[in-house]
Specification:
The chain is α/β, with parallel strands linked by helices. It has helices at 135-145, 174-187, 207-214, 227-230, 233-252, 281-294, 311-315, 321-341, 351-355, 361-369, 401-410, 440-445, 455-458, 464-479, 485-489; strands at 6-7, 15-18, 27-29, 32-33, 43-45, 54-57, 60-65, 74-75, 80-81, 108-113, 119-120, 124-129, 157-161, 192-199, 222-226, 257-260, 265-270, 298-301, 377-381, 391-395, 415-420, 433-437, 452-453. A hairpin with a 7-residue loop joins strand 1 and strand 2. The chain is globular.
Length: 505
């Protein structure tokens, strides 16, 4: 029997989702026929609603009807709008004991054990810039070193981490704290075998201030350098290359060994989402997260503007009211931030999201939260804070993927999964990034960029749990050294993007 042309997600929903391009007059459910053409991933109304009544998907409100609407109507931005309604935070109501896998049965990956006991999934040399003024010099250093790496097969590469900040900003306060915390997170990341911290010399974000604020210590594997102090670009490049050349043999002297999956910290991202994201890839990734947590590992959900309207699903899973209130606090900060800067929380979905069938931020958020699975929310972190808790956690960040992922990696994430329905080419050295396609058409179209196809769920060929198991196994293989598609293509140098919160002065 062939799969139905539309997907019903919950008995209480008054919309279904088009599995394919639906033509006018096509039966979508029972006697209900599509009134117009409906593109794949878009919604069709199955019950008559009055103007102002809520439209439901996942048994949650995704918006409100702008007029009286009949069954068979294509539901999208022309007839569905945002509206205010009360969320029941019901702190801890859905918290439940985690069904952990017995320790002797838990998965392991082949990783690198650092001298301080931390675990790495990759082995990079890093050049962390304090300011944009040192960006070009950092790239020169990397370019000089890369040809030497053929002699050192255990080193994954040299990554210059450049950004647009570091000066023209307040010398103290939130933005400087966030920038320094981010740079320090990359500097001490276990996937870095050695790091040069490279500044110009006169910038607001002084190397000394960074190292003091974040407790970084100069040493054989952490080398601070300022271009002005070294005598200019050429001398800086020559000296940095000299230092790092001496470190290459030691950095290469590593061997992968079995490490418990409990040492994995998985970053969760979605970008270029579509109407299938919350049906296939996101819940499948959520199933993989549940497996990782059961094996003792950690997973971090972020992108606060993209959980807006669905935050109550997280507060209900919080292990304590205190943890749940941390989520609410971040939501209120974002509402205030938008009010002060002239933005709006429904800035999302993006044009690509809308083309893929997502209508409001409420709908997008409900799908985005699915990436976090079903286990308890054990802690909430501010941007780029070190992730120390085991289990499912949340980190505050913007919805912009490079900025959000940068915070997660700074927090210690050593693997990343990125779901996409429209297509993504994201990479984030030094952490490997897996791309999960929400639909088979995308997977076939961008097969060189997509690591796994979750469209099999939409096609009726695979369950969410089956897909989640495959994702979990791929996470373990990736942590063990198997290259992702983005790594094969060499992507990940330019996606480092610390959050710029304040004014540029």
């Amino acid at each position: 029997m062939s799969a139905p042309i539309a997907i019903r997600l919950h008995p209480n929903d008054n919309v279904v989702v088009a599995r394919m391009d639906i033509l006018p007059g096509s039966r979508v459910e029972g006697d209900i026929a599509a009134a117009t053409r409906v593109p794949p991933g878009h919604k069709i109304l199955t019950r008559a609603v009055k103007k102002g009544e809520p439209l439901r998907k996942y048994n949650q409100i995704i918006g409100f009807a702008v007029d009286d609407l009949l069954p068979g109507t294509h539901i999208h931005t022309h007839n569905c709008v945002m509206g205010d309604f009360e969320r029941d935070y019901a702190f801890c109501a859905d918290a439940h004991p985690t069904d952990y896998v017995p320790e002797h049965q838990r998965a392991t990956f082949m990783g690198y054990r650092r001298g301080d006991g931390r675990s790495a999934t990759r082995n990079y040399i890093g050049i962390v810039t304090t300011v944009n003024c040192s960006a070009a010099t950092s790239r020169m250093i990397a370019a000089r070193l890369e040809p030497l790496l053929a002699q050192y097969p255990n080193i994954d590469g040299v990554v210059p981490l450049t950004h647009g900040g570091g000066c023209g900003m307040a010398a103290s306060g939130l933005e400087m704290d966030v920038l320094r915390r981010t740079l320090a997170g990359y500097t001490r990341h276990p996937n870095m075998a050695a790091v040069v911290v490279l500044g110009l010399g006169c910038e607001t974000n002084q190397i000394s201030g960074l190292m003091t604020a974040e407790g970084l210590k100069e040493g054989p594997k952490l080398i601070p350098m300022a271009i002005q102090d070294e005598g200019g670009v050429s001398k800086t490049v020559m000296r940095a290359v000299g230092f790092l050349k001496e470190l290459l043999p030691e950095a290469n002297n590593v061997k992968r060994e079995p490490i418990p999956a409990s040492d994995l910290i998985l970053a969760l991202q979605c970008g270029g989402s579509d109407g299938y994201s919350g049906i296939s890839a996101n819940p499948a990734l959520g199933a993989a997260v549940d497996l990782l947590v059961r094996h003792g590992g950690s997973a971090v959900l972020s992108e606060t503007p993209e959980i807006y309207g669905a935050e109550h699903l997280l507060t209900r899973r919080a292990v304590s009211r205190e943890v749940g209130e941390k989520i609410v606090k971040r939501i209120k900060w974002w509402e205030d931030h938008c009010a002060r800067t002239g933005g709006e929380m429904n800035n999302n979905p993006s044009p690509g999201n809308k083309a893929g069938g997502l209508t409001t931020i409420l709908e997008k958020s409900l799908g985005a939260v699915a990436k976090g699975g079903t286990t308890n929310l054990v802690d909430v972190y501010e941007y780029a804070q070190p992730i120390t808790a085991k289990g499912f956690v949340y980190m505050d960040s913007p919805g912009y993927d490079p900025v959000s992922a940068t915070g997660q990696v700074a927090g210690g994430a050593n693997v990343l999964c990125f779901t996409t329905g429209r297509g993504s080419v994201f990479g984030c050295k030094p952490t490997p990034s897996l791309k999960l396609a929400t639909n088979s058409a995308l997977y076939r179209r961008m097969t060189d960029d997509m690591d796994i196809n979750c469209g099999s769920i939409v096609d009726g060929e695979e369950t969410i749990q089956q897909s989640g198991q495959k994702i979990f196994e791929l996470i373990v293989k990736t942590a063990s050294g198997q290259k992702t598609k983005s790594e094969t293509l060499g992507i990940g140098d330019d996606e480092f993007e610390p959050w710029k919160i304040g004014a540029t002065m």
